[in-house]
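Figure caption, in words: inputs first, then the predicted bound structure.
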Amino acid sequence: MIMRMIGTGSSLPQQIVTNEDLSKIMDTSDEWISSRTGIKERHLAKEETTASMSVEAGERALRNAGIKAEEIDLIIVATITGDYITPSAACEVQAGLGAGRAVAFDINAACSGFMFALHTAYAYLQSGIYKTALVIGAETLSKIMDWSDRSTCVLFGDGAGAAVVRVCEKETKEKGNGRGLLAFEQGTDGFRGKVLACEGRKNRNPLIQNSFVPSYVNMDGQEVYKFAVCTVPASILRVLDEADVSVEDIKYFVLHQANIRIIQSVAKRLNVDVEKFPVSLDHCGNVSAASVPILLDEMNQKGMLARGDKIVMSGFGGGLTWASAVIEW
Ligand code: COA
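Bound structure (coenzyme A present):
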């Protein structure tokens, strides 16, 4: 069975906020942000919502795949910033796209969210339950940032990315023919979860004395950095081993876009030219679950992905969570 990614799409808010713009409203500088992270600017939502960007990214992915909304069996949205607690972002996407046949639900795995959602979709496809899935990573992180904490708020952005995955029954699984998913692995470490956290609602039932203090993203940047540079290369090597593919055979390493120094460190640990690690964080910042699919769509739109190319995708972040996959385009 071949499970192939047949279309991608993305959507970014119109408003672009540069490091220079941020330096006018807080004590920071382009020099500090660029040199420590590689981020130059990010898109921040004004009118856009997690659902509106998800729908737009989804529409574009369907167009790119050349299929209609009625053909989708499954919609999974990975997000930690849905517009509602219920309905889920995925249910909003179902309605927005008119995907009447689909079943829809959300997944929360923070910055690994798209990869977890993709794996869940693959599992449904592999089991024969569904044939076509729309997988979306979408975030409006600007609404959960502490804008008085310059060490976190400058890192993140808003946006959505989407991919259509489908069982291609008539195609044969020959080498170079684009065999789709070759291997996948994912993991979590809840014991260290609080190094990157955003608390939910407090219980305000009338029996409890509880003054409401909204909670925003709180991060121990150095701990997260250490986690990423150790975990990601190990995860990539495991998944390559499982796929029986060597590091040299990989055309691109599509990593979660958190920080250019994390990407450079992973490249060094894998002994791979950093040129094989495409980047979107310079103009998007860290868009959590949306990072990988936005980057993938940018690469697809630029014609960087040809049938038979082997690609590694890897996500990591809050939870703590991580997930990697090897696919043949
Ligand atoms: N502008 C200017 N100065 C800033 C700043 C900003 N936006 N944010 C923090 N600083 C200051 C700090 O106050 C500190 O000043 P001090 O030395 O006077 O106390 C100094 O810069 C160094 O701060 P520190 O937190 O030690 O910086 P760092 O070198 O660890 O870099 C990160 C911070 C966040 C860039 C880095 O830890 C990182 O990239 N971590 C990974 C985070 C990540 O990717 N998270 C998401 C994963 S999904």
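Residues 28, 32-33, 36-37, 111, 150-151, 154, 219, 221-222, 224-225, 258-259, 286, 317 surround coenzyme A (CB under 6 Å).
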